[in-house]
Amino acid sequence: MQSMNAQAVFQSGPPAPSRILRPGVRALAAGVERYVAAGNGSIFLTVQAGDKLTLTDMEGGQPCDLMAADGNGGLITAEVFHEAEDTASDGIARILGSGTPGARRTRALLERLKIKPESARALRLFGSRSPAFAKAELTARIGGYLLIAAPGGIMDFTAQDTATPIEVLLERHSPAAAAPMNQAVPLADPLADIHIDARTALTYTVKAGEYIQIVDVAGRQCSDFQAFSRSKLDKGRHLPLDATITRSLLGLTTPIPGLPAKAFDMDMDPLVEVIQDTCGRHDAFLTACNARYYEDMGYPGHVNCTDNFNEVLAAYGIAPRKGWEAINYFYNTMIDDQNQIYFDEPWSRAGDYVLLRALTDLVCVSSACPCDIDAANGWNPTDIHVFTYAGKELFPKAIAFRKTPDADVEMTKETAFHNSFSAMTRNFTEYNGYWLPNRFNNDGPIAEYWACREHAAVMDLSALRKFEVTGPDAEALLQYCMTRDIRRLSPGQVVYTAMCYEHGGMIDDGTVYRLAQDNFRWIGGADTSGIWLREQAEKLGLEAWVRSSTDQMHNIAVQGPKSRDILKQVIWSPPDRAGLGELDWFRFASGRIGDYAGPSVVVSRTGYSGELGYEVFCHPKDAEAVFDAIWDVGGEFGLKPLGLEALDMLRIEAGLIFAGYEFCDQTDPFEAGIGFTVPLKSKNEDFIGRDALIERKAHPRRKLVGLEIESQEAVGNGDTLHMGRATIGEVTSSVRSPILKANIAMARVDVTHAAMDTRLEIGKLDGQAKRIPARIVRFPHYDPDKKRPRS
Questions:
Q1: pLDDT in tens, 507-557
Q2: What pTM did the predictor assign?
Q3: Within 13 Å, how many C-alpha atoms sit on residue 203's CB side?
Q4: Cβ-based burial of 48 (10 A; exposed 0-12, middle 13-18, buried ≥19)
Q5: Read out DSSP for 213-282?
Q6: Residue 503: what are its φ and ψ, rounded to 5°?
Q7: Distance of alpha carbon 475 from its chain centroid, rounded?
Q8: H or E segment at 537?
């Protein structure tokens, strides 16, 4: 073989910098601050002369009330903003009457400004027909205090008058007078306010029941945390928080808010409990950085967290160590398939924090990690801030949730039905930004499952995302963005559909409700679906609004053979509407609980169980009354509560798909097993992804199938499927079916091996050393002709 000499290519000029895109991190110019007034909520700001405000109606159709005050009860809106005069507005009064957390916050702000609610006059911006992303710009002529509200009140399900957010950008005329950037903001009045400079560590003490908030001030900065029981230290027992014990007891890599929240010492005594976490990625495998690490990397004498710990802990008589075990907050550690531990930049952003509660009197130590030789701190060590709070403070357990990568962080919420279900269980799990029941006391998932198959069960599905799609072009928008033929829907009908990107990959699946000629409701699993619809409406210039109503409509599902009998005794229907017993499959109607004066509800004959069933939607203020009415009647019919564990069993048997398991944005509806939602022959109009789906249908590569497993050993999502040595697919979901008395699964396989009765093997361990035989069977496994939900 003739050798070839590589020839160096001359590159002129200086080297180009590495290009890094951070689409999830919002960048603001110097002197610009950003705030969001949530729907039915308000924000409070101070302005100086020359400050500029840019207000944006994020979803369209949302009024905005702006009121300026002097702090002594005087309204000075006209004086502050010369563009407009004070006008009478009932927006703030509507917020105050809504009974929401936003109402309590707004009332507190008015009291702070010494303004009586009945005299609150405001400048009205935007209106019911303002388009999404409409903007208003104002300049302050003099200084003052601002109350900016996004009023709404209680949504009328027919009028679809939901309340949505207003974004506020405040450009300071004198940035130096504004609050410094990257300043840690406490959650309440702190007992201690501790700033830990970059490359250092500090100790602090807390009493049992008090809270510790560890804040990443600038973002992408690690902080090692260690704690000792004060009573054990006084007895000469130096037992630190033990990460190995903690992992073993929890079955998790690190504690998280909820039930598996505690961290333990070597006596297996709990020291702290995680209450809130806005980052979600931490490390409990590695020690705090130490001298040996830097020496091996060629940096002898480098400052390190272990030496910093040793120095500050010496005051408590704690012996030094060569490497301190710790929970390394914000540290982004991973383990690959070859058991190699590696790390990358932290996920944490400026202001992200972990909130802990002390379970005994503690001596704690936190660091601002000094590592600057790798990506651990984004190559740039910065500060950490610690606040401690009194035990009297009420901080709910919560995990941070972002609707999109660049969205504002939101903490896990309780649904309006939480109090009703929490009386029967403490086992809740975070799902899509809400706490939902996982299983219930005394019964458990098997009993809950059988209640749904044989009698009736009630479950909380409030985490589903709801969007009100309205306007003259609403039908055209949905027709173009959905795979189903929306024009065929009559008012009162529902259709299950997919929503796809241009390449045919799925954004979401869900249901479209038609309320009137130009009024629709989209219910799906992801916020991105509503954002996508709104973006398409703007791109196409359509006169259509897509406004979130998730927080205005919470819902429970009543599923099972007895569900109709229960709801017929609960739901009152107007004489001109279909009664509960007359609703066909995929139909809905409005009604009330009990009689014409009862709480308003919308009832649809839909579900996620494979049984006859209904979903009942109501405003959060009516949730407990709705639940109690159904629960009181359901007792004689064997109604039981149902959690997510039992729901998973039901939906797998029925062949119902789930995002992240049966589909993602690389999966088309045919591969996800819902090809019936793509009527390419009967829908003779273009829609997003149509051309790609035509091609994908003509040349399929994978198919969703049902498997019957010839073993009772559990298999799970991601387990590989094999034909001999070849990998031909993967398991998407599996369950041991109580009613079929078999281990079953849904799986995506290469079409070459997707025929009925094909025998294949499920790979365990490394996929080769252990195999479980299975065969492809009729799908769905349970009631494949859907006779039960149609009954």
A1: 999 999 999 999 999 999 999 999 999 999 999 999 999 999 999 999 999
A2: 0.92
A3: 18
A4: middle
A5: EEEESSBS--EEEEEEEHHHHHTT---BB-HHHHHHHHTSSS--SSSS-EEEBTTS-EEEEEEEESS---
A6: -85, 0
A7: 29
A8: helix 527-540
